[in-house]
Write a structure and sequence with these properties.
The structure holds 2 protein chains of 2 kinds.
Chain A lengths: L2 E5 L2 E5 L8 H8 L18 E4 L2 E4 L12 E3 L12 H9 L8 H14 L5 H7 L11 H16 L1
Parallel strand pairs in A: 1-5
Antiparallel strand pairs in A: 1-2, 3-4, 3-5
Helix pairs in contact in A: 2-5
Chain B lengths: L1 E3 L4 H10 L3 E4 L5 H6 L7 E4 L9 E4 L2 E5 L4 H7 L5 H8 L4 H6 L2 H7 L7 H7 L2 E6 L3 E6 H4 E3 L2 E2 L5 E9 L5 E6 L10 E8 L4 E7 L9 H13 L2 H4 L5 H14 L10 H26 L1
Parallel strand pairs in B: 1-3, 2-3
Antiparallel strand pairs in B: 4-5, 5-10, 6-7, 6-10, 8-9, 11-12, 12-13
Classes of the chains: A alpha+beta, B alpha+beta.
Chain lengths: ~160, ~290
């Protein structure tokens, strides 16, 4: 089937999509957007988190056809004009990235949190990131990064 | 595989009737897992995400008619007052990403004994509204809707339209045991609802029997004891022994199994503890409200 959808601000037409395939598969394997990661394929790990019409979702659990006519933003769409988003800068500076596999999903989830809650409590950060697993960092540096990004955002 | 994407309820029912080989998909949080892992290869996917009627809820005459496609995130935000038990359970579903997509209709369609929505629906006395193009709508009490492990009363040509949940007349509680606060498939779960207007008690047990189920003996026992002691009217303290005896009766209503998430014995024990605590919390809420 043909899927017409907006990804990172541009309208795309993707052909030969199998109706049972996930949005994640379409993004990675048919659209050359490997930023969203494919790990658990059952919504447990959050590594594939993207925005669908402005809401963070596990793209592995969205059928590609469900994205027809919708707006998708992936981790590749967070930076603007070659400038990393403050959330991305904070992850780099705080060492919130080790192997990096969970990072794209965490960036989208943290980006969403800070857009809704500019100055989140630790509890709010933990709750917002509860659907994203990281097996390297122990999460402390990720929490640091989100706090740091919130400060940057407040100063900007 | 075909991808069917009706944009109205009428078209959705027509598609359901024409394609018995189609699997209905709403949020996708259950169905896509089966597709990703090659456990299911249906002839078609019937995407219900573009049917506006399913994404609405309305308060009508002491009930909330909750469209089958309203996601848990909206139940938490919009229905915490009217449906406190369901809202509490909704907060424990998956993760933020899952709650934004997953729906009560999906929980009912999957009919897993571990589905988080089932215990509060049972405790509240909810009714499932299903519909087919050929025979119109029919209403099935939640306790009759679950017919076996991942089986429900839905006919092949029917879709779940909505669930009708009585607006809470008293406090409701929900408890769930799992290894962490997020992304947990319940080891066991319990919901209770106090109905002070009718002087009755509602219960719902999850993950501890082939289907979600009520504990009718526990309900009748507690309502009767509260009546006998005049507590419905006096709103006095709930005796600890009564809460404990209620918990034991709830546990006795379960028929759990040993599996990877927990043993049958643990499920029974945890149910008795959850039921004792939940009913005490609910009763204390009732006393405070008085």
């Amino acid at each position: 089937m043909r899927i017409t959808t907006t990804v990172n601000g541009a309208v795309h037409e993707v052909d030969d999509v199998w109706p049972g395939e996930s949005l994640l598969y379409m993004l990675r394997e048919r659209m050359g957007l490997p930023g969203s990661k494919n790990a658990c394929e059952q919504g447990e790990c959050g590594s594939c988190t993207v925005y669908l019409d402005g809401e963070p979702v596990c793209s592995c659990l969205v059928a590609a056809g469900q994205a027809i006519g919708r707006e998708v933003t992936t981790v590749e769409g967070l930076a603007t004009e070659g400038q990393l988003h403050p959330v991305q800068e904070a992850f780099l500076e705080c060492g919130a990235v080790q192997c990096g596999f969970c990072t794209p999903g965490l960036l989208v989830a943290a980006h969403d949190l800070l857009a809704r809650v500019p100055d989140p409590s630790d509890l709010e950060i933990r709750e917002a990131l509860a659907g994203n697993l990281c097996r390297c960092t122990g999460y402390e540096k990720i929490l640091d990064a989100v706090r740091s990004a919130a400060r940057r955002q407040a100063e900007a | 595989m075909d991808f069917l994407q009706p944009t109205s309820w009428t078209d959705a029912l027509a598609a359901r009737a024409e394609r018995p080989d189609a699997v209905a998909i709403a949020g996708g949080t259950d169905v896509m897992v089966d597709l990703n892992f090659d456990r299911r290869r249906p002839g078609a996917l019937l995407d219900l995400g573009r049917v506006p009627e399913l994404r609405e809820w309305a308060a009508e005459d002491g009930w909330v008619r909750l469209g089958a496609g309203v996601p848990y995130s909206r139940i938490i935000e919009e229905l915490a007052i009217q449906l406190p038990g369901l809202a509490m359970a909704s907060r424990t579903v998956g993760s933020p990403q899952i709650r934004i997509r997953a729906t009560v209709g999906g929980n009912l369609g999957s009919a897993s004994p571990a589905g988080d929505a089932h215990p509060p629906l049972l405790a509240a006395g909810a009714v499932v509204e299903v519909q087919s193009a050929a025979r119109g709508a029919r209403r099935i009490p939640a306790e009759e809707f679950y017919t076996g492990v991942k089986r429900n009363a839905l006919a092949p040509d029917e879709l779940i339209a909505a669930v009708l949940v009585p607006t809470a007349a008293g406090p409701q509680q929900f408890c769930k045991v799992g290894t962490r606060n997020a992304m947990v498939i319940a080891v066991s779960a319990f919901a209770c609802a106090l109905h002070p207007d009718r002087k009755t008690v509602g219960t719902g047990i999850g993950s501890a029997a082939p289907t979600p189920r009520r504990a009718p003996d526990a309900e009748d026992f507690l309502a009767g004891e509260l009546q006998a002691a005049g507590l419905w009217d006096s709103r006095g303290r709930l005796p600890e022994e009564l809460a404990r005896a209620f918990g034991e009766r709830v546990a006795a209503a379960a028929s759990p199994i040993d599996d990877v998430r927990g043993s049958a014995a643990y499920r029974r024990h945890s149910l008795s503890v959850m039921a004792r605590r939940a009913v005490t919390w609910a009763w204390n809420d009732l006393r405070e409200a008085a």
